Amino acid sequence: MARFLMTAMPFTGHVLPLCAVAQALVARGHDVRFYTGGAFRARVEASGAVHVPWRDAPDFDENDLRATFPRLEGRKGLRQVFLNLEDVMIDTAPAQVADLQAEWDREPWDALVTDDTSIGAALFADRSGCPRATIAVLPLNLTSRQGPPSGMGLRPGRTPLTKARDAALRGIAPLAMRPLTKPIVRARVAVGLPPATLTFEQTVLSPQRILASGSPSLDFARTDRPAHLDFVGLLAAPPATAPTDLPRWWGDLDGRTVVHVTQGTQNIDPTDLIRPALEALAGRDVLMVVATGVRGRNELPFPVPANARVAGFLPYDALLPRTDVVITNGGWGGTLTALSHGIPLVIAGGDLDKPEIAARVAWAGAGVDLRTGTPTAARVAAGFERALTDRTMRDAAARVAAELSSLGGAPRAAELLEGFAARAGR
């Protein structure tokens, strides 16, 4: 039996994939603790892991970041990306280190397993020397000699001109991330580490072991990835034996073309995507099933057409096998889940990592990239028509589904982490 301490920033899309891996590790007989925010205690305990709460670190509500991080008020786009990274990920790191040190002093572990935004866990590993593996729950942001830099929402060039563009962007990408250098140095010094001009990527991604959610085809099929990296597909817990808490209108899905519409759990202003999607498909012979992204929020602040049904969260294990097209803002977890069912996507990726995800899915041929987070109804309608009727797109989604399935998911991740911990203990 190995002892694992898992950490994830307290966001649904970060915690749930690691909970799936925690459950698989517990099933293999390992001792698992999980350090994350208090809102996820029940989720962690359901996996069989022991919840370790944020204490010194400022626990926060992912649906109201501005309450804890006021500089995020009114921010979107690139400015939001940098403020998220600095205020939420980096500046909370010293307090995370304090929490982890207290837990380590209480009972050490054999291996630390972190998500790819847990700066605090990375700094603790650097300070303590404990073995660390990273699970990338976001699109893999690893430097490559191929294609454009990750995060720019660009597809790899296919012509001499666009290939030259990619090379030039790779050259200047480190300069673009320089605003984060000082905050990272500040966090390192605060926990007693020497200053080092490391990028965010170099800080959070383990040089020992990386497990990446997704698949090679969703990473532009780059061929220069390091030997300590494995793709593990979709990280999800085994499906429930029977769906529970289905909405009263669930029977309305029978015999219909079903379109799922979601804006995920971050930046969930329903006027950005949900409203134009409802306008685009109102009156059509389809049933739109809308998730608001907030549990218990089963209504929208504007009228919905007769062919739409709304809920806060929906049981994907029951919904996606009955879904024909997904219209989404492109959250990574939801995107992978839809693709694992071979469903073509219409993606309105507006900020954070969403434009990058939209570009990757479109490059794989499995979806439509609307190239904006606030599309018009006409643009959504055109994307939907293509996703519904283009056979090549549905075939591409099926190929991605097969690839994701072949990579083993959470059970494979647990197997690889078991081997990592065993080698680290020698």
UniProtKB/TrEMBL annotation:
Pfam families: EryCIII-like_C (PF06722). Residues 279-406 form the Erythromycin biosynthesis protein CIII-like C-terminal domain. Coiled coil: none annotated. InterPro entries: EryCIII-like_C (IPR010610), Glycosyltransferase_28 (IPR050426), UDP_glucos_trans (IPR002213). SUPFAM superfamilies: UDP-Glycosyltransferase/glycogen phosphorylase (SSF53756). Gene3D superfamilies: Glycogen Phosphorylase B. This is Glycosyltransferase. It comes from Microbacterium ureisolvens. The lineage of its organism: Bacteria, Bacillati, Actinomycetota, Actinomycetes, Micrococcales.
